[in-house]
Amino acid sequence: MSIKEDEFINALRKRGYRATRQRLTILKALRGSSTHPTAEELYNMVKPQIPNISLGTVYRSLELFERLGLLQKLSLGKSPCRYNGNPKMHYHAICLSCGRVFDVDEPVPNDLGRRFSEKTGFKITGYKLEFYGYCKECLSKSRKPEVR
Amino acid sequence: MSIKEDEFINALRKRGYRATRQRLTILKALRGSSTHPTAEELYNMVKPQIPNISLGTVYRSLELFERLGLLQKLSLGKSPCRYNGNPKMHYHAICLSCGRVFDVDEPVPNDLGRRFSEKTGFKITGYKLEFYGYCKECLSKSRKPEVR
DNA sequence: TTAGATGCAAAGGGTTTGCAACGTC
DNA sequence: GACGTTGCAAACCCTTTGCATCTAA
């Protein structure tokens, strides 16, 4: 865990960013969470350790982490964005009816996007795969399922 | 084209929604556009034909179309959401530096998500695959590329 | 006829931002 | 000491919503 922390600190310094207590604490909270917390949830998770941290700092850190490829940002319908700091890439399935986010544990085609990258010179640092549809519960409840 | 329009009208009526001029016009504008317009861009595209249409109606229609699986909504960083009405599924590659959206014309693994669906009873109506990274131009310009 | 849809405009709220103070290097 | 970062709170602006009116069925 501390080895990873060093890696993170180096990754920041290498690019001229500072390894502040706020950033370290936020990333640790994100990594330690198996859910996909919102910015506000992270704010509350971090507050016991840094009581006067501000929500703005959380947003600024998350934006930086995204640019550094350290997390996945999930923009769901109306609800606030959720952040996935799990280094293991995985898919999500999002229910269009209740809005819940499900993890999908399926193998990832490992050459996904390689051809595009070679053809265009686009450097892929990450990807996001989201399935949309309706979860079991909503399907059984809905009187008018909007399913193709 | 008119056949497709009939299909759309039926899809709406079947579920108790009305086939209004606004909805038909908005969907046609979206289908006829190869870019991924924002709600406001669609609003301006439709305005010549329905001068007193409101932005709220555009948003409400787009939200309905999404629930019906007729479009793909793309939530990009800070910019407003973009809507992809191209019936042919495709991927996108989003540059984290300049924010541009590139279409990826690569074959889609056709059984993606099938296992998850069978296992969990989740009914998949669509999916979204986005690559993140840095486009050629930004890579060559950037003095401090934030690339892993 | 009547229930769903629209137009309008105001409200909403997640996210961003300016600036002075602070902390890292 | 210099400059990147934070805290605070106000501003932003995309998106949603309430309500009277309209219209598709």
Instruction: Give a short account of the largest sheet of chain A.
Output: 3 strands, mixed
The largest inter-chain interface, given as chain pair and residues per side, is: A-B, 43 and 43 residues
Classify the helix fraction of chain A into a percent range: 25-40%
Structural class of chain A: alpha+beta
Helix and strand element order of chain A: HHHHEEEEHEH
Query: What would you call the quaternary organization?
Result: homodimer
Low-confidence spans of chain A: pLDDT under 50, at least 5 residues?
142-148
How many E strands of chain A?
5
Order of adjacent strands in the largest pleated sheet of chain A = 4-3-5
User: What fraction of the residues of chain A are assigned to beta strands by DSSP?
Assistant: 15-25%
Number of helices of chain A: 6
Overall pLDDT score of chain A: 82
Shape of chain A: flat
Gyration radius from CA atoms of chain A, angstroms: 18 Å
Distance between the termini of chain A: 46 Å
